[in-house]
Amino acid sequence: QVQLVESGGGLVQPGGSLRLSCVASGSIFSIYAMGWYRQAPGKQRELVAVITTGGSTDYADSVKGRFTISRDNAKNTVYLQMNSLKPEDTAVYYCNARRIVAPNILDYWGQGTQVTVSS
User: Fold this and answer.
1) What are the angstrom distances between the C-alpha of 68 and each of 19, 60, 110?
2) CA–CA separation, 34 vs 49, rounded Å?
3) Is the pLDDT of residue 86 over 90?
4) How big is the CA angle at 93 (ends 35 and 105), to the nearest 5 degrees?
5) Spatial separation of the C-alpha atoms in residues 82 and 47, rounded to whole Å
6) Do the beta carbons of residue 47 and residue 38 sit within 8 Å?
7) Residue 104: beta bridge partners?
8) For FRET with 49, which of 84, 94, 96, 104 sits at 20 to 30 Å CA-CA?
9) In this structure, are residues 44 and 58 in contact, taking their beta carbons and an 8 Å threshold?
10) Radius of gyration, alpha carbons of the chain
11) What's the start-to-end Cα distance of the chain, in Å?
12) Strands, sheet with 77-82, edge to edge from the N-terminal-most edge strand
């Protein structure tokens, strides 16, 4: 079992920045791929960024060049640095921890943190 707690959301003006954090507990953090997802009102949850156990990253096209995902295994924490925020980035952001133990996929989720981009 992995417990995930997000923080860092809030209200920011267009063009501004926020850094989200997600602290994990309950298991060995370094063996999990970590991701950030978001869900806007009336829309499905979508992948924003992922970082593998080896540190490789991937991003949704809509955030490439603006968002950066990173992890600190010593602190059991994954971050999402969000720059040049746009109103369409407004959503609840969720932290995800994933481990594949074939044939099963183990997914754990945080409670979410609200990000609102508005003037």
Assistant:
1) 9, 11, 19
2) 9
3) yes
4) 35
5) 14
6) no
7) 101
8) 104
9) no
10) 14
11) 40
12) 3-7, 18-25, 77-82, 67-72
